[in-house]
Amino acid sequence: MFKSNLSYQPEQTVIQITNDMTICQSDYPLDWYQTEFIPYAEEYMALPDRKLTTIIDWMRPYIQKAQNHFGDELLLLAHYYMGGEIVQLIQEFGGVIGDSYQLALMAARHPEKKVIVESAVHFMAESISILANPDQNVYITNPKSGCTMEMFAKDFMVEPAIEQLNARYGHDNILPVCYMNTSGRVKALTGAQGGAVCTSSNVKQIFQWALSQNKKILFIPDRHMGENVAQWLNIKDLAYWPKGTEGARYRLDEQSPKTLKQFDKAQLILFASECTVHTTYQAEQCQYWREKNYHVICHPECTNLVMNASDSHGSTAFIWDQVLNDKAQTQHYAVATENHMVNYLKQQ
Q1: Domain of residue 224, CATH code
Q2: Same structural domain for residues 114 and 154?
Q3: Domain that residue 69 falls in
Q4: CA distance 82 to 343
Q5: Which has the minimum average pLDDT: 59-68, 83-92, 94-103?
Q6: Is the pLDDT of residue 85 over 80?
Q7: Cα(225)–Cα(221) distance, rounded to whole angstroms?
Q8: Average pLDDT over the chain, rounded to whole?
Q9: Residue 325 C-alpha from the chain's centroid
């Protein structure tokens, strides 16, 4: 639908592995592992320490055995938000890093890769798998990994919103738009009603398309990104559907006349889930760093107050490109996004 020549390509890290660099993640109990993996987990837990050099030495024979077996058909992936040492470990063995959209396209754009192993949250692996070819297999290193924004926007929480809005306004008058960082089930609910999936890079463009359909837009989630887009596109009338299990139990027809009037008038209805990481940032923090002549850049999952207090805003890949290539020509950046990525950028 939308064509653009703009592409942010992740660069290889320049982090040097040092003897004191350790893995940031804690050990999991053995019963968290699939049965087939328990022997390897026991080996890992028996290692003398969690230094990256120790872990790489332990992993190398296994990775090399897999690389020898699968050859060029093997692809290792990691998200920018993983700890810098995890990213370095992936790249040590020839893997690729990227944001959620870049990762989602990896299988589709590389049909020669048949075995794809992803280190990130579960719904990103799911997106890769959805877009993969039938002969490609996608695996995730930790199927329990997730984020609060997606956890409070599960399909059983979102479906009642779509059903009740359809009942009140008509199926043809509700257009869902869901964020890339949602489950495959939520994406399916969105697509079944003629909606679209957006990324933090193209959310404004997707909303412009949605507005042209002259329907009420249900954005699933993030409430803060939705508020930011509303400002960019001058959308004044908003309503909010509660997040989580409250959203699953919410009954629109039982709400007060004032709330119903707000929904009736709303051009944009926001499913009110949010990212707890990005919500922690405050406008005062942005002002503090701007006073020190730092270029403040935030992710659009931050609150509207933070976005308005920042110098620029954009997707994970945009932030990576802006900082690493010093696009603001300041050499000083204060970044409001996930701390692992910020630490990783500091080491570049």
Answers
A1: 3.40.50
A2: no
A3: 30-146
A4: 10
A5: 83-92
A6: no
A7: 8
A8: 89
A9: 22
In a shared domain, residues 300 and 209: no
d(CA 342, CA 322): 13
Q: Are residues 165 and 217 in the same domain?
A: yes
Q: What is the pLDDT of residues 194-229, one digit of tens each?
A: 999 998 889 999 999 999 999 999 999 889 999 999
**Same domain? 169 vs 247:** yes
Write the DSSP string, 202-260. THHHHHHHHHTTTSEEEEES-HHHHHHHHHHTT---EEEEPPHHHHHH--GGGS-HHHH
How does pLDDT run across 97-109, given as a tens digit for each residue? Answer: 887 778 888 888 9
User: pTM for the full model?
Assistant: 0.84
pLDDT at site 6: 46
Distance set, CA 245 to CA 109, 164, 183 (Å): 37, 16, 16
Contact (CB, 8 A) for 93 and 76 = yes
Short-list 67, 69, 119, 121, CA closest to 93: 67
Length, in residues, of the chain? 348
Secondary structure (3-state) at 194: coil
Residues 269, 154 share a domain? yes
Please give the tally of structural domains in the chain: 3
Which residues lie across from 196 on neighbouring strands?
177
> Between the CA of residue 322 and those of 18, 104, 220, what are the distances in Å?
27, 22, 27
The band of 22, judged by pLDDT with boundaries at 50, 70 and 90, is low
Average pLDDT, stretch 317-327?
89
